[in-house]
Amino acid sequence: MFTWRNFFFLVLLHSVFTGYVAAKVIPVRPGNNVQALIDRAKAGDTLLISKGYYKQHSLVVKKKLTLIGRDYPVFDGLGKYEVLFIYADSVVVKGLQVQNIGKSSMNDLAGIKVSDHRDVVITGNRIINGTYGIYLQNSKFCVVKGNYIQSNATDELSSGNGIHAWKSTDLLILDNIISGHRDGIYFEFVSNSTIRNNRSFRNVRYGLHFMFSNNDRYEYNKFSENGAGVAVMYSKVVTMVGNIFIHNWGDASYGLLLKDISDSRISNNRFLKNTVGIYMEGTSRIEVNQNTFEENGWALRVQANSSGSNFHRNNFVGNSFDVATNGTLMLNYFSNNYWDKYDGYDLDKDGTGDVPYYPVSAYSVITEQVPVAMILYRSFLSGLIEMVEKILPTLIPDQMKDDRPLIKRINLHDRNTPVN
Amino acid sequence: MRTIVKYIFLDLLRNKVVLVYAVILALLSFSLLNLDNNTAKGLLGLLNITLLFVPLISILFATIYFFNSIEFIELLLAQPVKRDKVLLAEYTGLATSLSIAYLLGIGLPVLLMAPGMPALILLITGLLLTLIFSALALLVFVLFKDKTKAIGASLVVALFFTLLFDGFLLTFIYSFNDYPIDKAVLGFIAFNPVDLARVLMLLQLDVAVLMGYSGALFKKFLGSAFGSFYSVCCLLIWVGIPLILSVRLFRRKDL
Amino acid sequence: MIEIRQLIKSFGKFRALDDISLSLKGHQAISLLGSNGSGKTTLIKSILGLVIPESGSISVNGKEVKHGYSYRADIGFMPQIGRYPDNMTIGQVINMVREMRSDVRAYDEDLIRDFGIEGLKNKVMRTLSGGTRQKVSACLAFLFNPGILILDEPTAGLDPLSSEILRAKISNEREKGKLILITSHVLSDLEGLASEVIYLQDGKLMFHRRVRDILESAGEEKLNKAVAKLMRSVSHGGEEK
């Protein structure tokens, strides 16, 4: 199994066997000119940075070095500058505290930026009050692990992303804790990468944002209280497994927003207390199975331009509305889901109901057209409307049904590794 | 006044209708909450019962009770006591009994099987509806001389608030959908205690969906404690106004 | 003790009391006569403050009825139909009224004793016969020893024995100087009790005379005959006007 420790070990082995036998450890103390020490060091050397405040920024690493901080030495961008710029392969940055990164509308200033190189490891750092925290561009095989990235952005314009990756491949984003940025994690043109076991919360826009990124996988992350949830857009073959989407509230706020996505898989996730669990627009061939949708406003909002998706063996529990759609045609398929609102019967005792379940509620169709009508939701009147609709269906697309709804809730939680 | 309340309460404690009411509520609560361990669904079921049956039963039972007490009220008024006191004592005794029936029937099972904020809000709405519709019954009692007409009026009042009002409101919303009517709609809601009670519960159960609607006022109203505060205040006013009106009118009523 | 001046009360178009003036004194048992709808009950209710008159005034022991409720402390009222909350016991009803009148310490419990109410204390009101409820009403009317007693058809549902007990009690109280106002449409009930007769018809006061005078002027020995004669004469006289 791949863990960061193994990887780190391999990187070390690699450096040992490629001939830098004379690697030195260079101690760095507050007051030293760090840039000068970096420049003087030879490729393969380690800078051991002791605790303290370093009023130094815009550091550039152009050779393969290992930077290790002891007790989080502080590097300060003074609210104006970038702090660390890595322009070499196989650099390791560990245990630093990087703070007060500058803001600029011209270019993206970052706490730690990696550009055009590979095998860089950024691990166990603290990045406080940054615009962009860790920034990877045009890079490969980099590892970003166990970093604590916190800021306090209030609007989208003046803020940056916690972990920002652009035009890269084969990245590993693990165990990071990210909050208070525009997007917690941002991927644009990134492929073959994995995002695992991160926590991304209270970001102004998305907890995780995918754009034009194919063949990626994100799993066992927790996304909570983000302005608009998680967005995956214009991408293919994305695997989303075991994540928790919780408490993403507001208009235009989603647990998971899918736009122009195809051939992807969403499994074993939990969507809890979001305004919309999953919003799908222009998606095709998505497998949605073994997920739990609990106490969301709408568990699913599937726009009519989405097609060929299968919703199989999911739990729908305590949602205000299970499914909403904007058209009369439904080209996605529901089977063997558990719907707590289902009140059919199972006379043949095969565990599935004998009459289909229609997950689109008539009143949700009405509120779709007339949002203010929501104020009458759960009234006797809205109940009557639902009842009439059941007898004389007129509002609900009639392909929109689960022919074999499960009678009992599927036990899925044991498969969901909760994030601490 | 406390004396009269006490004895009316003792009388109603042994009233079969009140007992049956409490027992039926309790049976419904246990069966709904036991169903497939989904407390949210159970609470919703109880909410529907609360919104539909509590107003109806409260106003009908109270109206009949007040009319059956006319001779007793006359007897009390032959004593040197103020009319206001006798009337309010009648109301208090009755409303207390119905509230206790509700608390035992729904409150006890809910607190045992689904404790939490939504359960608490459900109980508060149920109690307030009991108080309001008993007060409306008192007003009907004071306004009408004929018992049969009064019962008819009570039915109309209950039907109006549980169904007709919402029908008119929905028609209004549909007709003026293109205009900014958020504020107006929130204003209208204040005129129906059943809607206020329901909104109070919606704020507990469906915040997620309510937050999905744009419109600054709506969001501000529904997204904060203000919404609940507003609803509770309006509901309290709904208890007060029929009571004050009843007392005023009763001062001039010929028995 | 009770002064009524130019009392007028209408229900819609119907005039229930039409310019009634009466002066009622103590030491009297006054029989208020009249057919159904003649205004008897309205008059009683006006005195009790249950019906609010349009004009005119009533004063009880010098206190204006419309100015307060304290005057009622000196009135005992026995309604025509005694209806009580279904599940109260007789004991509870009596206790409740006692607690309401915490100002009074000395109770007149003669009727409670004579009717044997004590033994029925735990009976629930719902299960009682009309007669027993009448007895309870009578007990309550006399309980606080009021100076004025207003009894609406008191003997209507009572058995002869109880009726006799009540009658004895009434005459006994009259002796003590009380004013007792009794409505009735059964004349024979009043024999030997009434000292004055008030006759109402269609909301108008037809006459208010002492029994002795009535007997004398009619030349009859029996009150009911004399009253019937008098009624006939005033009714005809009224029509001629």
UniProtKB/TrEMBL annotation, chain A:
Pfam families registered for this protein in UniProt: NosD (PF05048)
Pathway involvement of the protein, from the record: Protein modification; protein ubiquitination
Listed InterPro entries: NosD_copper_fam, NosD_dom, Para_beta_helix_rpt-2, PbH1, Pectin_lyas_fold, Pectin_lyase_fold/virulence, SCF-Subunits/Alg-Epimerases
Record keywords: Repeat, Ubl conjugation pathway
Name listed for the protein in its UniProt record: Nitrous oxide reductase family maturation protein NosD
SMART domains noted in UniProt: PbH1 (SM00710)
Gene3D superfamilies listed in its UniProt record: Single-stranded right-handed beta-helix, Pectin lyase-like
Keyword Cell wall biogenesis/degradation: no
Keyword Repeat: yes
Domain Periplasmic copper-binding protein NosD beta helix: 101-153, 159-344
From TrEMBL, chain B:
Entry GO CC: plasma membrane
Lineage: superkingdom: Bacteria
Membrane spanning stretches: 12-33, 45-67, 88-114, 120-144, 151-176, 196-217, 229-250
Keywords: Membrane, Transmembrane, Transmembrane helix
GO molecular function, one term: ABC-type transporter activity
Transmembrane among keywords: yes
Organism: Pararcticibacter amylolyticus
Protein name according to UniProt: ABC transporter permease
Pfam families from the UniProt entry: ABC2_membrane_2
UniProtKB/TrEMBL annotation, chain C:
Domain ABC transporter: 2-227
Top-level taxon in the UniProt lineage: Bacteria
Assigned keywords, A-Z: ATP-binding, Nodulation, Nucleotide-binding, Transport
Gene3D superfamilies in alphabetical order: P-loop containing nucleotide triphosphate hydrolases
Keyword match Transport: yes
GO molecular function, a single term: ATP binding
Signal sequence bounds: none
Family: Belongs to the ABC transporter superfamily.
Name of the molecule in the record: Copper ABC transporter ATP-binding protein
